[in-house]
Amino acid sequence: MAATGLVECSFFIPLIRDANLADGLSHPRGAWQWLDNELFERFGGRTKAPGEYHGFYQDPDTSEQVADQSIRFIVAVSKKDLKKLRSLLQGACVIFAQKCIYLSVGGKVEFVEAKRGNEN
Amino acid sequence: MATKTEYVDLNGQIYAIAGFDKQEREVLDKLQAFASRSPQWHEYENLWMPEVAKLYEPRGLSRRQIIDTPLYRIAQDLGSRLGIAQGIMRQSEDYRDELEHLILARFKTRREFCEATGLSEDMLSHVLARRKHLAIDTLNAALEKVGYTVHIAPLAR
Q1: What rounded mean pLDDT belongs to chain A?
Q2: What's the rounded Cα separation, in Å, for the pair B44 and A48?
Q3: Could you tell me the pLDDT band of residue B97, with boundaries at 50, 70 and 90?
Q4: Alpha-carbon distance B56 to B23, whole Å?
Q5: What is the pLDDT of residues B99-143, one digit of tens each?
Q6: Is A22 within 8 Å of A96 (Cβ atoms)?
Q7: In whole angstroms, how far apart are CA B112 and each of A107, A118, B5, B70, B118?
Q8: Which of B44, B48, B49 best tests the A interface by mutation, with the highest count of A CBs <10 A?
Q9: Alpha-carbon distance B5 to nearest alpha carbon in chain A (angstroms)
Q10: Of the candidates B30, B31, B96, B151, which lies 20 to 30 Å from A23 by C-alpha distance?
Q11: What stretch of H or E contains A113?
Q12: For residues A13 and B76, is the Cβ–Cβ distance under 8 A?
């Protein structure tokens, strides 16, 4: 099998807007469509993993444990395009009203935050 | 939803599918048949995009052009209907969602959008956080400055 030079990246989009940043409601369909369009245009596609991922984390602002359910996206990205993915997820923080988005790049985890100047 | 000659999406946008060529029609029929069996959202989502891309990429369309095709839009809309039915997303679009998308797509920052439209950053922050609304004439005047407008559309059936 030939090497592709691509890195498997996956990220989680919670099913609801952050209750502290926004209203805690589910996302409008336009938000999911926006993400699909961006992933298609920038990377040529994506895979949505089956089902919902249940987890919890400590909110850095309130120190409370927050449980959430997320959709996991998987995208194959060339190393030179990793910046594009991070930039897209910075935008996704705003559109999906999240403080940060969990991103795994080849197994290494990072948390992508919204761009300054675009926060609520 | 769909008829033989047109498709009305959840925004009330009407697509004339009578003009689809044979291959486009085959892809649409396949996707509609699959969606009609109420599959899990991710199953449909992982089907439609490669089907549409496989059709148009050999025709030399760029990804941006593919996104703008009626077939892509209809295929995506079918997925949204499944997502709404399965409680993954909500149907109702708030104009503030669309405003947020516009800012992200067209402007580097909210500040840049505010400078272009004359809206105050403080007001925009409250609006996008769903704490306040913009009056329709204020919204329209601001949008016109950046080449957009507010419009009324029929409800999707």
Answers
A1: 90
A2: 10
A3: confident
A4: 10
A5: 888 888 788 888 999 999 999 999 998 998 878 899 999 999 999
A6: no
A7: 36, 10, 43, 32, 10
A8: B49
A9: 24
A10: B151
A11: strand A108-113
A12: no
> What type of residue is A80?
K
Nearest alpha-carbon partner for B82 in B24, B31, B153, B155: B31
The identity of residue B71, as a single letter, is L
Q: Is B66 helix (H, G, I), strand (E, B) or coil?
A: helix
Q: Which residue of A has its CA nearest to B101?
A: A95
ipTM: 0.90
Q: Please report how many Cα atoms fall inside a 13 Å half-sphere around the Cα of residue B118, on the Cβ side.
A: 9
Cross-chain Cβ contact A28/B92 below 8 Å: yes
What's the pTM value of the predicted model, to 2 decimals?
Answer: 0.84
Nearest to A28 among B46, B87, B93 (CB): B93
Q: Which residue has the tokens 């507010």?
A: B150
Cα A103 to Cα A114: distance, rounded to the nearest angstrom: 13
Q: Give the confidence band of B2 by pLDDT, cuts at 50, 70, 90.
A: very low
